[in-house]
Every structure is written in structure tokens, then in C-alpha cells.
Amino acid sequence: MTGLRAPQPTGLVLSPDDSAAVAARAVVRFHLRAFARVEPTARAGEVEPVHQLRVATRRLRAALRLFAPLLPAQFASATHRDLAWLAAAIGAVRDLDVLNETMRRRAARLDPELRRALGPLGVTLHEERQRALAQLGSTLDARRARRLLGRLASFADSRTPGGRRARLGDVARDLIRPQVRAVTRAGRRLGPEAEASELHRVRVRVKRLRYALETLRSLGDRSVRELLARLERLQDVLGKGQDATTAIAWLRTYAATPGVSPDSLLAAGALIQMLAARTRKQRRRALKAWRRFDRERRLQAALHELESNAAPSREARRA
Questions:
Q1: Measured distance CA(243)–CA(104) in Å, rounded
Q2: Are residues 23 and 104 in the same domain?
Q3: Domain count within the chain
Q4: CA quadruple 287, 288, 294, 298: dihedral positive or negative?
Q5: In which domain, by residue range, is 181 found?
Q6: How far is CA 20 from CA 17, 69, 223, 290, in A?
Q7: What is the pLDDT of residues 76-129, one digit of tens each?
Q8: What does the DSSP 8-state code read for residue 142?
Q9: Looking at the domain assignment, is residue 34 inside a domain?
Q10: What is the pLDDT of residue 316?
């Protein structure tokens, strides 16, 4: 999405020689602490902390997805489901913040008279956010949420199972490969007239891969860094179109609300027209960005680098 960017996960450095099971717990602990740091200010409604709370939740989900083969199946399934439930409440607030920013930027291009007619629309948006924020507070206070966070904390602090432990360097490529395949499949299905939902599907998979690769960033080198930069740019291009599509849907719902004044309807219609032109422009940019990304073949280069960087440690271990 546009607006404030997701904070980069600094301070988390993994080694190819780390136990993969230990690494999974360290990653969960790291993002759980990030969640706890911003929860109080997010509850208070501050825009950036709400964003960071959503990112921490997404990174927790990404960690569970990445390390799924190493986790107890029941724990992974139940925790991922509960995180999705929690993410929906956080996302309801964050999406309204992004919607507000998207429409504010577009509204600045309208004639002053039309801009003034958007006043009631802004009031409606503010009231929706207040309701979503109250629901977020209730969700965070719910027993289900407290059990979820306790379960994650217990996992993060638990001892790893006994027996032979897989090295992270030995399994990193296999752990991330399913997300590489998911991005490739979704992207190559895009046609010249791709729908917003298809572009959004690619964006979601790009974001998941980016979060997973950021977790393993310290295991790679130049190819991994370059791929992360390309993924972030691709995600940004795809996100701009999605923001416009979301804003159009909200404006149409608002326009259909009984009692909306004719002046507000005209202003909403002007915004819809402007945003529709933007979605068409961003769709062309997104398709071009995907084709360029796919042509560069950076995915395979990064996978190869993750595997190659683990090789010296394996040789040393045999010595």
C-alpha cells in the first residue's frame, strides 16, 4: 500500500550453521517483541503504530509459513488461523488510513468547490475508523487474542526437540522454494487485461516472498539483496493500483448511502473517475513491471546463492 512504509526488520541475523528449529523460535520471538512494542500506541489510534502492528502480525504469519515443515502441524494451523483473525481487525483500521491518504491526494487535484463538498465524506470515513479502532481494541482484549500471543510466546521460549537438528543453511532453499513457485505461477497467469483481483493475488505472494527472504537475508549475499530490492519495487507498483481500486469500491458504497447530498455525490463521482484512470495506468505499469521482473530471473539466482553459501559450512563439518 502507499503511505508509510513497513519498517525493516533490523537486528535479526541468522547463520547457516544455526539449528533451523532454533532459528524459527528466534524469528517468532523477534516479531512478537515488535508487536508488543507498538500495541499500546496502536490501541490509541496512532497511524504509524497501527501500520507497524499490522506488519508485525504479517511477519509472524510469514514466519509460520516459512518454517511450517519444521513446526508441529496443529500448532502451525491453529496459530496461523488466529493470526489471520487478528490481522483482519488490524487491517480494518489500517485500510481506512490508507484509503484516507489515497483520497486526500486525489482530492487535492479537484476544483476547490468539489473539495469542499467532500466534507461529509471525510466525516463518514472518520466515523468508520473510530468504529474499526474500537473493534480492534476489543479484539486485542479478547481471550482468543491473549491465548494466541501466549501460545506464540511459549513456542518462542520452548526448547527444541531432541535428536538430529537440521542446519538452517541446509534447508533454507527448500523452505523458501514454495513461495518462489507461488509468485511465479501467479505472475505468469497475468494476461494483458488482468483484473484487479489477479494483480492483488500477485502482490500478496510477492509480499509473502519478500518477508520470507528478509528473514533469510543474512544467509545470502548480492543476489538476495538485489532480489529484495526488486520485490519491494514490484510490490509498490502493484499496491498503488490496489489502493485506487479499494478507494473506488468505498466511494461507490458511500454514494449509494441514503441521504448523501447531491454535491457530495458529484465530488465522489469526480474522485471515482480520477481513480479509475489511475487504476488503468497502474495496471499497465504493473504488467510491465512483472514482465521485467520475470525476465531478469533473479529468483533462481537468489535460490542458488542461498544454497551455495551453505556449502562451505557443510565441508567444514565433514572435516
A1: 12
A2: yes
A3: 2
A4: negative
A5: 169-311
A6: 9, 10, 22, 32
A7: 999 999 999 999 999 999 999 999 999 999 999 999 988 999 999 999 999 999
A8: S
A9: yes
A10: 47
The helix/strand/coil state of 192 is coil
How open is the CA angle 278-279-284, to the nearest 5 degrees? 100
For residue range 240-254, what is the model confidence (pLDDT) as tens digits? 899 999 999 999 999
Distances in Å between the alpha carbon of 165 and those of 2, 74, 158?
41, 21, 15
Residue where the block lists cell 504488467? 287
- CATH number for the domain spanning 48: value is 1.40.20.10
Q: Copy the grid coordinates of residue 239.
A: 499496491
Tally Cβ neighbours within 10 Å of residue 20: 20
- Helices marked H in 1-72: 20-43, 47-66
β-bridge partners, 200 = none
CA distance 291 to 301: 17
The pTM for the full model equals 0.89
Q: What is the per-residue pLDDT for 315?
A: 46
Would 7 be classed as within a structural domain? no
DSSP state of 39: H
Q: Among 227, 226, 232, 237, which Cα is nearest to 287's?
A: 237
Rounded CA-CA distance 144/240 in Å is 34
Same domain, 178 and 275: yes
- State whether 173 and 70 are in the same domain: no
Task: Let me know whether 307 and 189 are in one domain.
Answer: yes
Cβ(69)–Cβ(98) below 8 Å: no
